[in-house]
Specification:
The complex is a heterodimer of chains A (150) and B (542). Chain A contains two helices and ten strands; from the N terminus they run E-E-E-E-E-H-E-E-E-H-E-E. Chain A is mostly beta strands. Chain B contains nine helices and six strands, in the order αααααααββααββββ. The chains are: A mainly beta (150), B alpha+beta (542).
């Protein structure tokens, strides 16, 4: 089941970045659309022994193994309701020079929204670049370039 | 008659005198007519003839007539004596003394005395027979009176009892009428209940059919609800499929947007299409959600309907079972009501018959009561008649007792006999009381026996204790003057026993009469009066 989009896109603003809005637990997260490779139905990853908790395992995408991370754990979101249509968002992670495809397990892919650029290129050097209000709800904007570095 | 006899006895003497005078006058006339001695022979002849005629008359007529006259005189004296005796006898007879009456005519010729005695005895026998008959009649009358009185009393009690029974039967009849009315009402109610029971059975049967129909309808509804549930599941599956398609479309639109973004300016128009597809997918998803919600409500309603129909079916089954039980019970009730109605009708009929019978019994009892009352009145009349018969017998007895007979039942004779015995005590009246006591003891019908001396003074008396009953006899005392009493005067005057009319006894209050007889001394002179008061109630014991 899709979450209804309650955010108001920032239309016509040059300083806005189009992002994919997903839900992870009770958080809404936005990731730049140019770093998103594909949204697919939730993959069934093969767990890796002694892997970090946020690493759900490896799944096959495009004939290649791809690590699948738990986005809710990455953003430390409280567990929400059981998702009805979980998805795996395939994104480019890491710096532009050495980026690679990573799967982020999210509860749902909601919509395409436009987020102020300042929020995307915030001062934070962590996974969450900043926060923005989409409609009346706070949205955590992800800096996927930091995903590989962490 | 004596003058006539005297005339008849003196007529021959007169004839002789007339003849002698005639001869003497004829002789004298002949002597006068023929003066001288030569013409005296006619006178002499006449004298001779006259003397001859006188002698002839004396011998032929006078002497026989004188002899006959003497005989007639003797016969006349005898007849006079007989007449006196006969008169005395008849006077005694007139006085009712049939004892002395024959004694008075003992001097009469045997045939006459015998005839008189025979007539007196016949009269005495007749009187005794009348006395006995009157006693028998009185005894029978008393018995009839007692029986009639007892029957009248019994009839009165019976009439009273019949009246009470009639009243009870009338009450019973009224009760029977009420019972009959109640029974009729009960029969009507029972009949109505029977009809109501039949109607109830019909209604229950209809209700049973209705419940069965409801059960069938509920079963049909349950079947259709199951069908709807099954269809709902199919719809859910379709919705899931649509949801899945919408999700995939959504993801597809997102990927299209991603690809459009990757294409830069070239992908801007494609991005718009992708966005429209995403919106379409979202609306589809929203529509599916709406349909799902509606379907949830619909399914919930169906489940509720199913549950309701199941419960309704169970309830209908229970109602059906109860209705069948009720129908069975009502059927039994109808049978019971029919029995009750039949019994009530029979009861009503029986009570109606009972009421009719009670009315008939009441009518019969009233008739019986009237008959008994008439019978009681008749018995009272009969009792009165018996009492009058007793009184009549007493009157006859008193009439017969007015005769003195040489019979033990003749009170005059009885009193005369006791008075004769008391004759030896004249002058010693104080010794007469014992004899009076013997008299009273010997004759229980005597209330009081008393003796008055020749001056009418009470000399002695004796009271029957049984009649006195402990009451003191204050009406008799020694020395009381009885001279003015009519019975005393009658006995003292005629020296014959008398019988007084009935009067009320001072001692007992009963009707009684007094028999009194003269007491004579040894020389037959009147010396007093013996009286006995006879109680009329026990006169039949005389």
């Amino acid at each position: 089941m899709l979450y209804p989009c309650t955010m108001t896109p920032l239309a016509g603003d040059a300083a806005a970045v189009r992002c994919l809005l997903v839900s992870a637990g009770e958080y809404l997260c936005a990731m730049p659309l140019n770093q998103v490779r594909r949204v697919i139905a939730a993959l069934a990853p093969h767990p890796l022994p002694s892997a970090a908790p946020e690493l759900l395992g490896l799944a096959e995408f495009g004939g290649e193994p791809m690590p699948v991370l738990d986005l809710r754990r990455l953003v430390n979101a409280p567990a929400g309701a059981t998702p009805t249509h979980p998805v795996t968002v395939v994104v480019w992670a890491g710096p532009p020079t050495g980026r690679e495809l990573v799967g982020l397990a999210a509860d749902a892919a909601i919509s395409i929204v436009e987020v102020p650029a300042i929020a995307v290129t915030g001062a934070s050097r962590g996974l969450i670049a900043g926060e923005a209000l989409v409609g009346e709800r706070p949205v955590r904007v992800l800096n996927l370039e930091q995903l590989g570095l962490d | 008659m004596k003058d006539e006899q005297s005339r008849e006895s003196s007529s021959p003497l007169y004839g002789l005198v007339i003849l002698v005078v005639t001869v003497a006058l004829g002789f004298a006339a002949a002597l006068a007519a023929s003066p001288g001695s030569g013409r005296q022979w006619p006178a002499t002849a006449f004298l001779g003839l006259g003397l001859g005629a006188v002698a002839l008359y004396f011998g032929v007529t006078y002497l026989p007539q004188r002899r006959a006259r003497h005989q007639a005189e003797r016969a006349s004296r005898l007849a006079e004596r007989w007449e006196r005796e006969l008169v005395a006898g008849l006077e005694q007879l007139q006085a009712g003394d049939l004892v002395r009456s024959p004694e008075q005519v003992r001097g009469l010729p045997d045939r006459l005395a015998t005839a008189f005695g025979s007539a007196t005895r016949s009269l005495g026998a007749l009187i005794q027979q009348i006395q006995n008959s009157s006693t028998d009649v009185a005894t029978a009358g008393n018995a009839v009176h007692a029986t009639a009185s007892e029957l009248a009393s019994g009839s009165s009690q019976q009439a009273a009892a019949v009246v009470e029974i009639t009243a009870t039967m009338e009450e019973l009849a009224r009760t029977a009428a009420q019972i009959a009315g109640n029974a009729a009402s009960q029969a009507t109610l029972a009949a109505h209940a029977e009809e109501t029971g039949e109607t109830g059975v019909g209604a229950v049967e209809e209700a049973l059919a209705g419940v069965e129909e409801v059960q069938k309808r509920i079963s049909a509804i349950a079947t259709r609800a199951d069908t709807l549930g099954t269809r709902s599941k199919e719809i859910y599956r379709v919705l899931d499929l649509i949801t899945e398609i919408a999700q995939e479309t959504h993801i597809l639109s997102l990927n299209a947007a991603i690809e459009a973004a990757a294409a830069g300016e070239h992908g801007r128009r494609f991005s718009v299409v992708a966005d429209e597809v995403r919106r379409l997918a979202q609306r589809s998803q929203e529509s599916v959600e709406s349909v799902r919600n509606l379907l949830e409500e619909f399914s919930s309603s169906i489940r509720a309907t199913v549950v309701a129909t199941e419960e309704g079916g169970k309830e209908a089954t229970r109602v059906l079972e109860r209705s069948r039980a009720a129908a069975h019970a009502i059927e039994e009730l109808r049978g019971a009501l029919a029995d009750t109605a039949r019994t009530a009708r029979e009861t009503s009929l029986a009570t109606e018959q009972q009421r009719t019978a009670s009315d008939q019994v009441v009518l019969t009892l009233k008739e019986v009561s009237q008959v008994i009352q008439r019978m009681a009145e008749g018995l009272k009349h009969f009792s009165g008649t018996a009492e009058r018969l007793n009184q009549l017998a007493l009157n006859i007895q008193l009439l017969t007792q007015s005769f003195r007979l040489d019979a033990p039942r003749s009170l005059k004779h009885l009193c005369e006999r006791w008075a004769s015995d008391l004759g030896s005590r004249v002058g010693q009246w104080e010794t007469a009381e014992m004899q009076l006591a013997d008299l009273v003891a010997a004759h229980p019908f005597v209330e009081v026996a008393f003796l008055a001396d020749g001056r009418g003074t009470m000399a002695a008396y004796s009271v029957n204790r049984e009649w006195a009953g402990g009451r003191p006899a204050t009406h008799v005392t020694i020395g009381m003057n009885l001279q003015e009493r009519p019975w005393y005067q009658s006995v003292a005057r005629d020296e014959r026993p008398i019988l007084t009319p009935l009067y009320d006894s001072i001692l007992t209050g009963d009707r009684c009469f007094t028999v009194a007889a003269p007491v004579r001394d040894q020389q037959g002179r009147f010396a007093g009066v013996l009286g006995i008061d006879v109680n009329a109630k026990s006169w039949t014991k005389i």
